[in-house]
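Deliverable D4.2, example record:
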Amino acid sequence: MVRSLRIIFSLLGFFSLSAIASFANPLVYGGQYYPEEFVLKQIPEVWTKYGLDVEHILFSSGADSDQALISGQIQINCGSDSRTASLLSAIPDEGIILATIQKGDRYATVVSPSSSFSDWNDLKGQMIAVRLGTGAEQILRRFFAQDPNLAWEDFKWVNLKIEDMIPSLQAGRIAAFTAWEPTCGIAEAQGAGKILKTYGEISTVPVSLHTTRAYAENNRDIIIRFLAAHLEKVALIESNPEEAAKLAAEYSNKTGFTVQPEAFISIFKRINFSLDVTEKDLESIKDTAKMLHDGGQIANLPNIVYDPSYLEEAKKLYEEKKTN
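Output generated by the structure prediction step:
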């Protein structure tokens, strides 16, 4: 199990910055290790449908993806709320948000299926795993801040790599872990864990699509068609999560790592994959930016810029294609 999880994180087709330097495609898109990205990798025909030539790369590091965007090696990327805040802080007034690709119950706390834990109060004094410095820690601190009966000091914390969480729970070394998908869905599908709590009501913690203002202004039509292709992906996930899960599992299997479709089915039914950016999403990003700034992780509070006009036109194009 440990070996398998390490494989999916290190061998899942991710590329380093040097690996993409020679690409000369009209649009290089830097994706990340997200279930919907696996689906998109399996349906490259959506790019062709909208007349696009896209090199779709998956990054293991959001920081590397941001640096590739800043340096011009890629034209569009995606990243969590903390990556959005860091990117927009690094290039003030130069970066913009185009859409979201997932939000809501992205993080979950998982306990053993045989445990009697029913909420966080039951876990006081227990050993809990979380990857410190990630969105998982941030969402927990937000949750604790809203509950006067909970404090960070009530628990024993261990900083674990994401691939070590399921085996540690199975071995009884920890009572629970908090992580992002697909780890939680995999634990459920394997019977290794059960969901204690999700956190969509605390914050939407959106994953967003970003580009630079210069690229957006000079390539409006490409961006519109790019977003329309993403709408095709969303439609598949929402209308047929079973088929989407099969595609995601197939992409995983190509790398020698077996994830059953059932793991992805639960994920596709739990998370919101809408491209629409809401005021709540923007407030979530601003809250994250403030947390990062207060903690000295970013130098400046960024100006969060979202231009809805690209997605509005993409929706019209998507509907036209569907009608025709």
